[in-house]
Request: fold
Amino acid sequence: MRLLSCAWLSAVLSLGSAAALAQPLSQTSSYDAWLPAPATPFASYVQHSHSRLREVLAQAYFTSTPFPFGEGHDLDFVVDARGPYEWRPEPGCIGAGQGKGFLLIHGLTDSPYLLHDVASSLREAYPCALLRGVLLPGHGTVPADTFNMQHEDWQRLTDYGVNSFRGEVNALYLVGFSTGTALSALYVDAHREDDLVHGLIMLSPAIKAKSSLAFLSPYLRWFRDWLSQGPEDDYARYASFSLNAGAQFYQLTRRLGSAGFEALKVPVFMAGSGDDATVNMESAREFFCSKTPEQHRQMLWYRAAATGSDPLALCQGLQVVPAASAGYRVVSFSHTSLSMAPDNPHYGMDGDYPVCDSYRADPVRFSQCVNDDAGTVYGERGLGENGYYDNKLVRRGSFNPDYAHMMAAIVRFIGDSD
Reply:
């Protein structure tokens, strides 16, 4: 382990500047990661956040072109995609979802867009519910704003988001993706006597990082700014990953994997891929099987036949679901697959942003991956050998062919939790 740690440290410290971001994206912005005062109306939080996002994004991306993220994606579009939101029911709404609320919390280097499809599906199922999505401090602006972000601020914003529902709903569900799942579980852990939260919905659950060397990130951040960098051409999330981002994730999730973590009492729904290359799904399974209420839980574990990504053990409520889908050219599910519908205009099967980052160093294969649908399959990073699976290039999975079934299971879970 020491030899591996030293090798990884040497590799990180020797990272060159060949992939350095163009200015000013590698510099922190003037955006103050605004944490609203407890009494701030949520609509005011949304309005203020959008105003500050517009100011930063205009300066960082839109000074030389009206469409830095592709035709049709203007400044207002990108602000709406990245910003927090509030979807209120029609006045006097009576019916499904009445008295219910959903707080949606995105993942690391992401934005609220990564849960927009889920929010839309919940709104369709519960037209009388109140839905709110938050933007975690350090996100949505420029990648360098992750240099100074603190996981404690993410937790404070989660507290604010939950408290914003008090007096407006009787039953609140926390819907998290990746890092958002850790924030949800930690909130419930810290407020065990609070009966407002009726359930957790955890997609690509972040109980522990996939890398066994994640514990080094709090130290390495003092030597290097970046673990990886890429062109910032995705309107929904950062491509670059700072060492501080990894450090904050590690520090946030340490308690969830500790032996002293007391089992939760609220109902829990989980869904994740056995091939996930970002978070440790075995740690998530262990958490599900030992730290959630046996009679009020459900987990969908997506297994790929191509990789044999089975859970190491089963427990009550855990269901193994096939991940492959020939009709969608999906071989395995990635970390980023779970929350997006197949028809999503950005990340879906026919979306405008095929994820081909693993080929960027090879312009020919990168172009083929982006443009040759018939010559590609979807899967998690590392699928196949030498960048090919069954003689086809691999796009990282960015949508969930089983999305409709998963959302139906979530709706049933919510009904059973009432």
